[in-house]
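Posting this for the archive.
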Amino acid sequence: MSNLSEANDNASKQDQSRSTAAGSGDRQIEAALEFLAELATSTLESGYATEASMLMVKSCAGAWGLREVTVSSLGRVVIVQCADGDGLVLSRVAEASSLDSYDCDRMRRIKDVVRQTVTDNLTPVDACDRLKKADIGPQPFPWWSVQAGGVLLAFCICLQIGGSPPAALLAAGTQLIVNLSGRGFGAHHVPKFVAVAVQAAMAGALGGTFHLIGWLSVAQAATVIATAWVLIAPLPQLISTAIDVVSADSLTALARALGAALIIGGIVLGGLLTLALAWRFDLGIASDATLPTLPVWLGIIFAILGAIGNALFNVGGRGLLFPAAVAGLVTASVNQTLIHVGHMPAAWAGPLAAVVLGFLAAASAERLRLPMSALALVGITGALLPGLIVCQGLILSVYKVSGIGYFAQAAAVCVALGLGASFGVYLWSVSARRPWAATTD
């Protein structure tokens, strides 16, 4: 009887041990799912394209040996699923706060957490703690550096599209006012469409005021307004949307496209308000609106400075500044070569230069430990924004001549820039799978 009792006790202890181990394993899986869901939403909120976000989630899941992991993205909603030791499917659902933010340094910090999770064999709890710290900072530069970057970027873009030095200075000041107002609207949760419409109208009113008080001609005032409008344009969202389309993530691409359309609609409404106000004043007879053209070498210099300004404007750290300068140099050089040597229209040269930029950004992102979309964005914004086309349409419109064709062309160019950059990324992904391709690890 005693032997039978001892056997029963041993069996009971083994069952308890298995139960405890199973419970511990379930808790580990639950902690891992919590981290993976938070990682997915954090990457989307910071500005990553969906495919890059999902790949990071799966790499962390693979490092922990999770079975049958699936990651689904439905717009801002992310679902992460995996199987436990008994084959049961466990899942976590999380929702990103937005898809229209872009924070280069937060993207870098999150990528570092993913790298540490995979290479240093972090536990899910430790990974969660590091992700929370990465999400909140610290910021790489003082708060005013973002505004300084926007001011530098506006100054450079205005000069690139033919603005005079006084116009460029006023464009920089206008950008500062518009951006600070946008931050104020965001802090008070003003609907995005309304906020963008007010910002666009505000830029138009400031540009018109500069003309009425005699500081700028109509054409030069148009360069100020056009600079502000192209900087409000949702280029980061368009790039991410194009990457999602190329990677066949149609639902998230649609969500991003709708957000971008909302911003574009706000710019259109603000522009109509600007024109309605301009038509109330006598602007005289339409004069020659030909804008001065910068020498090629000077245009390249301002493209480099604009790329650096955009790196600061999108909260890029020190590690992004030099790569941003190189991205601006390469993009502007390719663009100018296509225009002046290849005699190609600027509307075609820009997207082709974006293809080259996207390819190089994807090829160097891992070595530089920077997000490839951040490298593509700074190069495009520094050298390829269609500010001149917007300016030409605006000059016609204030004299009640239809400029819709120019505005439509500018919108098409913005979309083409995003598609070009994403196609360059795709070309790199194809070439990197070849046996002769160098690794990016």
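The beta strands are 67-74, 77-83, 89-95. The first strand starts at residue 67 and ends at 74.
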